[in-house]
Design a protein that fits this description.
256 residues; alpha+beta; Urate Oxidase; 9 strands
Length: 256
Amino acid sequence: MEDIQNHKDNRNIDIDQVGVKGIRYPITVRDRDLGEQQTVAKINMYVNLPRYYKGTHMSRFVEVLNEHSRRISLQNFSEILEEVKNRLNAESAHMEITFPYFIKKVAPVSGAEGLMEYQCTFKGSLNHGKDLVVIIRVPISTLCPCSKEISEYGAHNQRGEVRLQVRFNKFVWIEDLIKLVENSASTDVFSVLKREDEKFVTEKAYENPKFVEDIVRDIALKLNNDENITWFAVESENFESIHNHSAYAYVEKHKE
């Protein structure tokens, strides 16, 4: 059968990324407590396409995934990119894997257990060199320092989200990144809280007020002192409880 993708194209335009998006696929992620965690990811895969080719072979992306089956993880990310690059005769390959990651959290007073979900992404590319970024989204709770200062009866607080991206020299644990973020908030968020726990987290937040500026600066300070981290970008967004907008702050730093 004739292969249309290999036909010549006369428009003389290179395509930076072409491929498949939104593949739902089971993957295995390293879990510090359990060894491994099975989850379901949404996967995007791309290669570059030189100007002289009409199209790429979309089915080959899925074939590579099927060959790796459930063995897709941070450890063999570069291996998969190399295989995609070779299979499609490309100069560069890119892949993004986004998945829910679950951690068992214990309520601070009652000890009640519940699973917290965190959205994580592994994003990598293989061109002249290798590049791998880990991205996590962490829900947090903050209490407004200004509101606490001017109010007689309390202060407004709200849920927020921190989006942290890191590049690194060696392996990084998702759990360590999440804990670093949660420890920088007024208080962290739980899936199960009893009455005594609600009292604890409410009072903890009141004693630990944070602006979004405080959040990103505190996280940046910790990452600056971590020799394994070579680059980071951290953004914090508060979904304000008394305003019709969000508060936002962003810090990025190349350490090398």
